[in-house]
Design a protein that fits this description.
alpha+beta; six-stranded antiparallel β-sheet
Length: 245
């Protein structure tokens, strides 16, 4: 069932579990009614492909405060007169491809650039025990909305080092790391029902300005470039040991 890879399928699946539902940003299929509903509710939304990867085709739409609306993709910004014009522009860009619209999370930042947490959760062959084997912070390049390091020329940092440099430095880095790991493990345990034989997930998780954790995206076939980029290869080596176990 190819559609099990789709963001919408995964969102609907995770949302049915009460103990993890609150960690999901509100998400709907992208159409005019849903776009206007979520925009009126949050004044700041993300529109992205249902099957997109590596930050491609991601748009942020926000109110400027002067009665106009900003559409931000990569480093490019476009101002439009009203919400309907924003929808028509995005609808034209989407074409026949399916997109989703999502509540935008106000991500914590490092040097003013948004960051999120890449968390790898794995289990060994034949085991029901999940373990967080790696965790790091991805920081978007200057002017970008996506944290994909190739697309935005961003950087990867060890989580505690990044948190000390971040807008959350007044909070306990160890407590935030513990919260991220807890949510990732809870979610991985649920995903077994959707993918019974799968053994690795990469969770892209946001931490907002209040220190609350959000599940932004689940990747079943993650690349390991983030952890290869770190000087300390301990986490990368641990991932590979689990993959080969």
């Amino acid at each position: 069932m190819a559609n099990k890879r789709h963001k919408w399928m995964q969102y609907k699946f995770i949302r049915q579990f009460e103990d993890v539902r609150s960690y999901l940003p509100e998400t709907k299929w992208f159409n005019k009614d849903n776009f206007l509903e979520l925009f009126d509710k949050y004044s700041d939304v993300i529109v992205k492909p249902n099957e997109g990867r590596r930050g491609r085709g991601v748009y942020r739409i926000s109110a400027t405060g002067s009665g106009k609306y900003e559409i931000h993709k990569e480093k490019t910004k476009r101002i439009v007169a009203d919400k309907e014009a924003a929808y028509e522009y995005l609808h034209g860009k989407a074409g026949s491809r399916k997109y989703i619209v999502q509540q935008r999370i106000s991500l914590a930042t490092v040097n003013g650039c948004p960051m999120d947490v890449r968390t790898i959760v794995q289990r060994k062959t034949g085991s029901d025990v999940w373990k967080v084997t790696a965790i790091a912070i991805k920081v978007a390049g200057e002017g970008y909305i996506v944290t994909n390091i190739q697309r935005s020329a961003g950087l990867v940092l060890p989580i505690l080092k990044a948190l000390r440099k971040s807008s959350l430095k007044h909070l306990s880095g160890k407590a935030l790391r513990s919260s991220v790991k807890k949510v990732a493990l809870m979610t991985a345990e649920k995903m077994v029902q959707l993918y019974p034989d799968h053994r690795i997930y990469a969770f892209d998780m946001g931490i907002d300005d209040n220190g609350d954790v959000w599940i932004i995206e689940v990747n079943r076939f993650p690349m390991m470039t983030h952890f290869q980029a770190l000087k300390d290869k301990t986490m990368y080596n641990r991932i590979m040991r689990y993959k080969n176990s």
